[in-house]
Amino acid sequence: MEQKMREIRAEDINPRFNWGRALPALGTMGVDFEERVDYRRLHRYRLSRVKQALENSDLGALLVFDVNNIRYVTSTKIGEWERDKLTRWALLTRTGEPILWDFGSAAVHHKLYAPWLAPENCKAGLVGLRGTVNPAFGLMKRHAEEIASLIREAGVADMPVGVDIIEPPMMFELERAGLKVHDGQQVMLEAREIKSADEIALLNRAAAMVDGAYHLIYEQLKPGVRENDIVANVNQFLYQHGSDDVEAINAISGERCNPHPHNFTDRMLRPGDQAFFDILQSFMGYRTCYYRTFNVGRATPVQHDAYKKAREWLDMSIELIKPGVTTDRVCSVWPKAEEFGFPDEMSAFGLQFGHGLGLALHERPIISRVISLTHPTEIKEGMVFALETYCPAADGYSAARIEEEVVVTDKGCRVITLFPAEELPISHRY
């Protein structure tokens, strides 16, 4: 009977996908006439995953400063400005519920509007804003002793506390308070690698928004338009359609395509330019990484050839994706660095590449010839990740870059990035 109850609770947290149906790309609003994303179910799933990962580890507690981990554990977010401040943190012990320290009045707001957190577990805190409040002022010492006291109350003080990212003075204060600090990021990444039905729906919705952004790019890509014009217009499109963070839009054109600089400029597009874009944005925290390549007006034979090779390398890797396959097998079908003009694999890192997607841009699995051939990991049902390839053209400056996001199903994978990319798109063809 107890086992049956556990099964019921698990199903309530994450109902299994029916892979025979299309993945939903639903609207942003909640409605009463069909089931969409259940955010409280999403919270229960994420918290249960962290608790299980903590139980499987040698840690007694997790102390997280990484904003993606804070959101995963507590389902709270106070704006993109928080991302690099290290001003919020959360504690989860083996025996307790999440405790959150937040920026000033945000803690009061959570008590009113986040009923899934105990009111007494929503605290205001300040450890220094990356050193701008001098550690000598004592705030880090005060909070480290408070955290140590809570860990003792939870009965796990004899076990290490896992920390993801931290300012060195804060780590020293935790150690002075009697805590043994270990790496907690690996435990958090283990928890986050398998996505629930709700997470997959959010990732699919985010990808659908970028489908629309690429149609906008296709319409606007013409001589006289600048890379930064495209970036500005896509930012507007995404925010109008519900994005909560446009992290970056890479816009690369013409002679800037090779080598790949990973940024945008005010370069003006010209007839015959090859141009590729990467749109990194999030919906409800769930991110995209989605490249597409275009030509402006016309394309040369070598530009077509570069695109075909990048597409072939990508398709070969997608065909391999299914549960049980290891990452070394996937990257083995990609060219060696020397075969496309780079001196070694580290110099070519990120060009023939796979990476998990979730609340962060880079989650598990990471697929690359740099690491996967010697340290393969298993691909599992419910993972969501991006696969991306790059091929420089024989003209010495053009290049093609293509990326698809995939959901790993029970038998294979489903591509969720749907803007057409089977052949090189040419805008305003001459």
What key attributes describe this structure?
globular; Creatine Amidinohydrolase, Chain A, domain 1; 11 helices; 430 residues; 19% strand; alpha+beta; Creatine Amidinohydrolase; 2 domains; 6-stranded mixed beta sheet; 5-stranded mixed beta sheet
How would you summarize the topology of this molecule?
Layout lengths: L1 H12 L25 H18 L4 E4 L2 H8 L14 E5 L5 E4 L3 H8 L8 E3 L14 H15 L7 E3 L4 H9 L4 E3 L1 H8 L4 H24 L6 H14 L4 E9 L20 E10 L2 E2 L2 E7 L4 H20 L6 H5 L21 E4 L6 E5 L16 E9 L6 E10 L4 E3 L10 E2 L3
Parallel strand pairs: 1-5, 3-4, 5-6, 10-16
Antiparallel strand pairs: 1-2, 2-3, 7-8, 8-9, 8-10, 11-12, 11-13, 13-14, 14-15
Helix pairs in contact: 2-7, 5-6, 8-9
Structure description:
With 430 residues, this protein is of the alpha+beta class. Helix content is 33%, strand content 19%. The strands form three sheets. A six-stranded mixed sheet has the order 4-3-2-1-5-6. Strands 7, 8, 9, 10 and 16 form a five-stranded mixed sheet that branches. A five-stranded antiparallel sheet has the order 12-11-13-14-15. The radius of gyration is 23 Å and the shape is globular. The protein starts with a helix and ends with a strand. Residues 1-8 have low confidence and may be disordered.
